[in-house]
């Protein structure tokens, strides 16, 4: 009886050593097993099942034929995002219209009020902001909208006067870019540290041509005798401008304004504090859980194996 108990204890200890020193074998084997099941599911599907792959004989299905009538070139007739107050162009490209323009016309209709805006090269609206543009021998029929407003957003129909008529719908979205300064409206900076102001321009169909910064209503000069001032601007769908001022001093306090060329300006109040009045801790430490990203222990960790071994020993005693 004592020999059997000793054998059981040795077996448990051996399992504990293997589990602690080589836990990856268990998890890797499980991963390989799972990979084999999920990756080969379709290969083992019986004929007639949803996962079965069927290859039909070559030549099945209708063959493409040349178009014999007019049609829309969708790649050149896309939705438009326009800047508030800046001229917008809605383009509709019609292929294969040829010399049929005497009998067929391309028109623009506004869906909001089913209003006929243009027919061919002629404009049929009293709103002088709208104009039809079509060059001779061109496939493009363009609707120009000057000074677009938010109310102009919506669906516009490009229509070919076939029987029945053909239509392609284009959505116009009139947006107004917005400007934000991260961390505003007040920022508190320790004296001697670096002031880092970040200005973001959102909802702009195109990047601003320029962004300049003001300090207390005066344009910031990057080559001023003060020195240590620089600006980095990254343009794209979202444009970001970084203003960096090194070795902050009390005279750097005040109102800073970000001024994009195509959006409203935004301001932030900066307060440079003396060291005695600093409200920021010098330590930048974070809890261990934050540093590790909240990762949990793996099921085959040594701690898990130890608990399992102790439980087995108790059950055998």
UniProtKB/TrEMBL annotation:
Region (Disordered): 29-70
Cleaved signal peptide residues: 1-28
Compositional bias (Polar residues): 39-48
Gene3D superfamilies for this protein: Immunoglobulins
Biased segments, Low complexity type: 54-70
Gene Ontology BP terms: synapse organization
SUPFAM superfamilies linked to this entry: Immunoglobulin (SSF48726)
Name by which UniProt lists this protein: Neurotrimin
Originating organism: Papilio machaon
């Amino acid at each position: 009886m004592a020999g059997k108990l000793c054998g059981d204890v040795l077996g448990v200890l051996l399992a504990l050593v293997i589990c602690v020193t080589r836990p990856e074998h268990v998890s890797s084997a499980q991963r390989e097993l799972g990979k084999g099941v999920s990756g080969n599911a379709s290969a083992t599907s019986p004929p007639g099942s949803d996962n079965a792959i069927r290859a039909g004989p070559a030549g099945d299905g209708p063959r493409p034929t040349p178009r014999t009538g007019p049609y829309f070139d969708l790649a050149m007739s896309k939705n438009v995002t326009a800047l508030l107050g800046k001229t917008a162009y809605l383009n509709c490209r019609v292929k294969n219209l040829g010399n049929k323009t005497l009998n067929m016309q391309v028109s623009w209709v506004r869906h909001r009020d089913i209003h006929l805006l243009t027919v061919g090269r002629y404009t049929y609206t009293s709103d002088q902001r709208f104009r039809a543009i079509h060059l001779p021998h061109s496939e493009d029929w363009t609707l120009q909208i000057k000074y677009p407003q938010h109310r102009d957003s919506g669906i516009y129909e490009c229509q070919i006067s076939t029987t029945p008529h053909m239509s392609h719908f284009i959505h116009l979205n009139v947006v107004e870019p917005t400007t934000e300064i991260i961390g505003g409206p007040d920022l508190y900076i320790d004296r001697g540290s670096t002031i880092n102001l970040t200005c973001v321009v959102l909802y702009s169909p195109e990047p601003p041509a320029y962004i300049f910064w003001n300090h207390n209503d005066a344009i910031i000069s990057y080559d001023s005798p003060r020195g240590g001032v620089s600006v980095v601007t990254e343009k794209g769908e979202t444009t970001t401008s970084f203003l960096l001022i090194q070795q902050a001093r009390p005279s750097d306090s005040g109102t800073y304004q970000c001024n994009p060329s195509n959006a409203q300006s935004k301001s932030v109040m900066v307060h440079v504090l003396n060291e005695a009045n600093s409200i920021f801790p010098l330590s930048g430490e974070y809890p261990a859980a934050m540093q590790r990203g909240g990762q949990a222990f793996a099921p085959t960790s040594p701690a898990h194996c130890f608990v399992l071994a102790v439980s087995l020993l108790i059950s055998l005693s």
